[in-house]
Amino acid sequence: MAEPVPTQITQGCDEIEDSAPCDEDDIQKPDVWGRLLSINKYFPSINLVEDEYSLGRGKKCSIIIDSKEVQATKLFATYSSVHFKIIRDTVKNYVYIQDLSSNGTFVNGDKIGKNKRRV
Asked: Which intervals of the chain are annotated as region Disordered (predicted)?
């Protein structure tokens, strides 16, 4: 399973052992292949760099939705432990979302369907 996406550089330049001067721009950044763009202030937008992400309330998800602000919303109870997965297939060169929820996952207003995928 993919590790949670870091939102900032976790190691400062002065902590990197190197004889060359350090420049934040020189630090290799992962290749971003997609972005989850939030339309809700309680959810951050996330750059996608891993080949698989799971989103839900469960602690094993790579994107966990359990902040106090989200828990206070009326929709929190509708989010499943693992609500959906986003999977990047690098062989076939496509990305799909798989609905794993009890209450449905929607793309552009259309319900995907339990255990079904949408490219």
From this structure: 1-24
